C-alpha cells in the first residue's frame, strides 16, 4: 500500500473565482447562504457553516476537456480561506457521510475501469493506498456516493 496525501482544490483555481473569474462552463459562480452541513468547501476541505456565504459553481478537476473529464457542482467559501494542508489526515469534509466513491485515474486523466468503489469513510485511506500501489493509476478522486460530486484528490505522498 502506498502512503497517500489528500489534496484540495489548487489555490490558483479558488483565487480565480474569488477574483471574479468564470467556472468550467464560463459562468460566474452563484452566491448562496449555507444552511449548515452539506456545503463542503473544496479549498479548505471543511464544511461551510450555516449563515456563511458560499459560491456554487461548475468545477472540472482535470487539465483538459476529454470524454472522462467529469464536471459538476461544488462549493467554495465566498470569503477566501486557507487551503487544506494536513494532507495525510482524512479531511473534515470526508467525515460527513458514511461512505464515498473512491476511483482511480491514469496518467491520461481517464478513469481506470474497475477501480471505482463506494467506500466506508474508515476505509478510504486504505483503499486509496491500494489503488495507488497499482501500475497504471496516477491519482484517485473521492466523490460523493450519493451525487458523484468531486470532493478531493488523493496522490502518493
- Structural class of the secondary structure composition? mainly beta
Q: What percent of residues adopt helix (DSSP H or I)?
A: 10-25%
Contiguous uncertain segments of 5+ residues: none
SS field, number of helical segments? 2
**Rg of Cα set:** 15 Å
Distance between the termini: 11 Å
Q: Helix and strand string, N-terminal first?
A: EHEEEEEHEE
Shape: globular
Number of strands: 8
Q: Approximately how much beta-strand content do the residues carry?
A: 25-35%
Q: Report the major sheet.
A: 5 strands, antiparallel
Strand order of the largest sheet: 1-8-7-5-6
- Number of self-contained structural domains: 2
Question: Overall pLDDT, averaged?
Answer: 96
Give a short synopsis of this structure:
The protein has 157 residues and is mainly beta.
Describe this structure in words.
The chain has helices at 11-18, 124-132, and strands at 4-7, 30-33, 53-59, 72-77, 99-105, 117-120, 139-144, 150-156. It has 157 residues and is mostly beta strands. It folds into two domains: 9-77, first zn-finger domain of poly(adp-ribose) polymerase-1 (2-Layer Sandwich), CATH 3.30.1740; 87-156, no CATH class. A five-stranded antiparallel β-sheet has the order 1-8-7-5-6. The longest helix is centred in the C-terminal third of the chain and has 9 residues, at 124-132. The protein is globular. The model has no long low-confidence stretch (mean pLDDT 96).
